[in-house]
Design goal:
The protein is an alpha+beta fold. Helices cover 33% and strands 25% of the residues. Strands 1, 2, 3, 4, 5 and 6 form a 6-stranded antiparallel beta sheet that branches. The protein is globular, with a radius of gyration of 17 Å.
């Protein structure tokens, strides 16, 4: 009889230790992006497809996971930078979230911030599992504009 009690305890502890963001449902695009920019990525499980898996759509998480699965051990994957800050390091300060343009379960939102220089990212969000999730991120500035979807597509 001790084994079922131990199993129940382990399940309960596992549920309690899950990242709070993973359990969150964001009812508006702004709420999702505010939480994303306040998130401590160190809370993300080492086995997650990306640092921001709790905020990413199933499709985007699958692309990160596929990329990780096909990357040789010791190599960096296709996305070798932090897409939420559009760089290798630093942090986003003075974050401004624009008004979303919502159409048929998707939203486009502009996010501007400082990370040693002004940065503007364009988010594509989708409604999924009762809330909003990030489905793509793009930076159209500078010499090398990018989007996560284009980077993943180019890696195939």
């Amino acid at each position: 009889m001790r084994l079922p009690a131990l199993a129940l305890l382990l399940i309960t502890l596992s549920a309690l230790s899950a990242s709070p963001a993973a359990a969150q449902t964001y009812k508006t695009p702004q709420a999702l992006l505010q939480a994303l920019y306040r998130y401590d990525a160190a809370q993300t499980s080492d086995s997650a497809p990306s640092l921001y898996s709790p905020f990413f759509s199933d499709q985007l998480n699958a692309r990160f996971q596929d990329d990780a699965d096909t990357t040789e051990p010791g190599d960096s994957g296709t996305i070798d930078f932090d897409p939420v800050i559009s760089g290798q390091d630093g942090q986003a300060t003075h974050v401004e979230i624009g008004e979303p343009i919502v159409l048929d379960g998707t939203a486009e939102v502009e996010v501007s911030f400082q990370n040693s220089e002004p940065v503007t990212l364009y988010y594509t969000l989708v409604q999924e599992h009762g809330g909003w999730k990030v489905d793509d991120i793009a930076n159209q500035q500078g010499e090398y504009p990018w989007s996560l979807s284009a980077l993943f597509d180019g890696a195939q």
